[in-house]
Each structure stands twice: as structure tokens, then as C-alpha cells.
């Protein structure tokens, strides 16, 4: 059986070392906490002697850091440009998931985070990965502003303990990121070292049988404070909502900032993470009718059923290094260069069910073995600064970026005969599926390269009116080569040369607290499909139109945004009606809708987030070829937390939220559902607090990913999580 995007990818194996890693956290924490105060005392001595350097900006993104803000609202973001920009002045829909909200909601994975971003669908793949969509299209990714081709979808990501915030721009971002899907861009911004000693810990215990420990230490490393460091360590061992599924994690992150001079800073960081999963389950496919031409239903025995044999496993490891050099000139201009490298190994050995199943739960099983490696390299260099012209101050940015992905994948598949009719097995007895030796029968090398030159201008026409103009010249190439079962020469699957990608936005300050905006942006997405004659298809092309209002309320503590958008997508590859083995660029889609978001503080100790999205996805010409059916028409997300500051309840916090969506379908329909969560916490003193969170209060049974011809993923059942945090 050939592997497609809808089939399991290479995943993770058992890793006994995680247990040793977790047990080693305690002595390591003691050593780090004991050693670091010496550096803090040296810094204090230097300050009192008058020899300390003037305050410096510790990283390129320091102005946008959300750590320590105690708010769900971020005032600035970097995802729409290369420097921090006020969100109210960005003529696009931008959401920022702050460190405070990640902590309050006990988020540990990128899937946890994006599931609570307005308009974003985070669809679990069942193996520790997911795919992410916004406005009916896939999302791209940046790491601290470095655009990375193919770095998000169906891939394991680092633990969220590594990041200060998650920024999401919805809609095409081709000027900064180049060729790609028009859904938008996720920018993951790493934590940076702080200029004062600080240590925090987090311990979580879940009712499924999970334990997670986090240690975070930061502070100055020399008496002048010009060298600062940070270390974050995470270990977890968790049983899951699905029976017999167990996932472990070990993550280490380290960062250094060094000020060569008050205006020049070099930042270095590195991360390492492993994620083994035992009892990996891709779920069951839908029930088919008697002639196996349509899906008619589903077959869960319970919503904790594991439909895979207990010997299933997968394993992922990620290594990453980064460098950032920033210089601020005396005239307000700034130059910065970022380098990024990541290596990922993903392997797995597992059996899965399908295609289809009978009404009494009989289906075929096959054993699959896979191994894939990924290597990403990214670079971005730019200069930006103010220009005085016609009595107004304008901002210009010029830069170029480069992204390279090389990937090697190997896979093998073996059908196995079962004891029932036609060699089927029972979905309710997956341990009857034997573990057989599966050799690799397919192997391929892939290479995706993209680079481009970009510019952005923020032109202030009058005091309340601004134009934001952008342009990019982009180059893209995708190549492939097989080495199993037979070796082949490298071939070019998609190529785009000197593609021009423009964007334009207008921002108007109606009153000091209310801003109107509109934008136009164009996108280009390369396609690898070919015609019946073997000729590559032209790229998908299209544009987005968007308009909205952004408001600031309650002394700038609370922000609100409403936006209306339309994305036109042309030349989509669809099956050739005259030659079913080929494709033609005849598909079109129109994604349009409305988004609303509120984030911030209703009171200084009361945080709230709410987001609503209406999305209408319309396809022309062969709709089943173009949609996976996981885009709900209505999507609502809410989270709030209130901390009592005085009286008998001083120190108590209460919170909760919900996620609700309308029906989706991948052949089998998942009806509308709502999930409710609640939380209560108590701060014992200024250093220690604890919270107890009840998730899925009403134990709603639902699919995160409803069944198709293959696979399905259940949502988590009702569970409880105890979290204890310390802060010194």
C-alpha cells in the first residue's frame, strides 16, 4: 500500500532513558539553583559600584516579550514584519498567545496552543503530531521570524516551555515568507535570558496517570551583566485518554545573550527533545456500505478504545541551534541577522486498520515500518528604521531570507491475514494482529529550497492615516529522487522563478481607541501534481481581501478585533475528467467569513480571552478532491481567570473556558459539540501557587478527527490535572 498524507507518518519508539532523565531533574535543579545566585550577587555588586553598563535591549524581540506581563493581551507582535509592531497598526488579523495564558490553561504542546487561537483548526493525527489550518487553508511557520518551508504540518514540535509566546497571522503572508498556503503563519518566539536571577518550577499530575516536571533558570552570568543565560528542562511520562497509549518526553533548552557593546547583542540557543510513544493508535476507519462505495457510520466500542496492537511504537528526536545578531544604530535604524538549523528523526513500527470496516467491526490490518529524517536550514537578514519625509516619520524594512529542507524517507508495508472473512480482524481485538518483520521497500530523497528579497514600507500620509506596502521577489524549487525499489535521477517537481508577491494595507485611527484597517495580499503556492502527459501544473494563485476594526479599552488593558475576509484560490489541482490518472489546474475555492477576538484584562486581576469565527468554504469543480471536511462553519473559544486580591478569598483564583464548534465530516460526520473546562487555584505566598483543573466537565464523547477511509482520533475524556508552580 502506498503511503499518502492521510496515512500514518513515521513516528516514535520506546525510550527508556526518559525515565532516567526525569529522575535526574531533582539533583540537576538543586545544582543550578545553588550555583546561579553567585552570578546574581556579582551583578548586584557591580551595580552598587557604579561600574555597570547602561541598560541594553537583551534580544531583537525584547520589546515584545509577554513573560511577566500577567495579561492575555500582547500590545506588539513581530509576525507581520521583522521588528515589533503595535498590533493596532498592523493591517492584518494577528493573535498572540501570551505566556500567561499558556500557563493558566496548562498548555504544553503547540496543538494545545493553536486549538485556542481564533479561527485555527488543530487536528490531531494520533501520533503526537497534528495539522493546522486557518481560513480553510494550511498554516506555515516561522521560528523567531525565520521562515521555514515544510516545518509545521504533521511534525513533532518542541514543548511550549521553550517559548515566550505564539503569534499567528491569518491570511497570506507571502511578502515575508514567500511561496506557500494562504492560511497564514505561526511564529514561535523562544524565551530569552533575563537580566535578573530567576528560577521557576512546574509540576503537573494528571488523572490518566501523567507526570510532568519543568525547571526554568535564568539570570546574568558575569558581574557586568553583559552575559546572560537561560536553561529550561522538561521531563514527562504520561498515559493518555486512549487505553494503553503512553507518551514520554525529555526536553532541554539553553540560551545565551552577550552584549558586545550597549548597541550590539549576539544571541545563541540550542534545544534537544525526544518523544517516544508506546501503544500508538491511529484509530478506526468508518463503516462502509455493502458494496464499499460510501462511508455510512462509525464503530467505537467506547471513546477510550485503542484500535491498534500494544506493540505499536514510534519515536521522534529533535535537535535545534540558532543564532541572532542585532545592532542598533544611533539614528534609530537596526540591522539583524538570524540563522536557524533543525534536525528531526522520526521512525515507527505499527499496524493500522482499514480501508473501511463492516458494521460488526471487521476490517483489514497492515503492518508498516517507516523512518524519516528532516534537516532545515534558514537564514534571514534585514535592516529597518525611520525616515523623515514631508513632516512625517515613516518606517522602511529591507531584507532577504533563505530556507532549505532536505528529507530522506523510507517505508515498507506488509498485509497480514486475519482469522475472519477475507483475512480480516476484529477492531475490538487488535492484539490479535501479529508483529511481522517489514523490510523497507520504498525510499526517496526530497529537497525544497526557497529564497527571496523583500521590502516593507509603513508610510504615514497624515497623523491618523497610514499605508503599509510590501513586495517580494521569490524563488522556489522542489526536487525528488527515489533509491528504493530502484534508484532514479533527481527530478524537479515544482519550480517558480522571480515570482512577484505584492501586498497593501491601510490603517486609519478613527479615534484614539479605535482603528479601521483593510488589506490586499497575493499568494502563490507551487503544485507537484502533473497532467496525464506528465507535465507539471502551474502554481495555485490567488488573493485575500480583508477589512476590520481594532479597539483598545479600559486604559489599554483590553483589546477587541473584528474582521471580514475573502480568499480566492485558483488553479487548484483536480482530477482530469478525461484522464483520471492525470490532473488539471481547474479547481477554485472561495473562503470567506468573519472573525472576532477579545483579549486582555477586564480588571487588573481578571483576564479574559474569547474568539469567534464564521467560515464559509466554497469549492468549484470536484469539491471532494479539495477539502478534508474539518473546517467547521462556526467556531467559538473562551478562557477566563479571576484572582481575588483581598478579603477572605485573597489568594484564590477561579477560571474556566469552553470550545464549541459546528459539524465536520471526513466521510463520517461529527456533529456539533461543546467542551467545558473549569479551574480553581490558590496562591500560598508570593513564591508558590497550585491549581486544580477539570477538563471536559460533562464527559462529552466526540471525535477531534472523525473517521474517513482510514483513521480517526477521539477527543480526551473527562480528566483532572493538578499543577503546582514555584517562582523565586
CATH superfamily: TonB-dependent receptor, beta-barrel domain
How much strand content do the residues show? over 45%
Spans of 5+ residues with little confidence (pLDDT < 50)?
A: 1-61
Instruction: Give a short account of the largest sheet.
Output: 22 strands, antiparallel, barrel
Query: Count of DSSP helices?
Result: 5
Structural class estimated from helices and strands: mainly beta
The CATH topology comes to: Maltoporin, Chain A
Question: CATH top level?
Answer: Mainly Beta
Q: What is the count of structural domains?
A: 1
Radius of gyration, whole Å: 26 Å
Distance between the termini: 55 Å
- The whole-number mean of residue pLDDT values reads 90
Q: How many strand units?
A: 40
CATH architectural grouping? Beta Barrel
Percent of residues in helices comes to under 10%
C-alpha geometry: globular
Short description, anyone?
With 728 residues, this protein is mostly beta strands.
Descriptive notes:
With about 725 residues, this protein is mainly beta. It is built from five helices and 40 strands. The strands form eight sheets. The chain has a 22-stranded antiparallel beta barrel. Strand 38 and strand 39 form a beta hairpin. The longest helix has 24 residues, at about 25-50.
Task: Set down the secondary structure blueprint.
Elements lengths: L16 H7 L1 H24 L27 E2 L7 E2 L6 E5 L1 H6 L5 H5 L5 E5 L5 E5 L2 E2 L1 E4 L2 E3 L14 E8 L3 H4 L6 E7 L7 E9 L3 E11 L6 E13 L6 E16 L2 E15 L8 E2 L6 E3 L15 E16 L5 E20 L8 E2 L1 E25 L2 E25 L8 E2 L15 E19 L4 E20 L6 E21 L2 E12 L14 E14 L4 E18 L7 E21 L2 E15 L13 E10 L8 E10 L2 E2 L3 E2 L2 E11 L4 E8 L7 E3 L7 E2 L4 E9 L1
Parallel strand pairs: 7-10
Antiparallel strand pairs: 1-2, 3-9, 4-5, 5-6, 7-8, 9-10, 11-12, 11-40, 12-13, 13-14, 14-15, 15-18, 16-17, 18-19, 19-21, 20-23, 21-22, 22-24, 24-25, 25-26, 26-27, 27-28, 28-29, 29-30, 30-31, 31-32, 32-33, 33-36, 34-35, 36-37, 37-40, 38-39
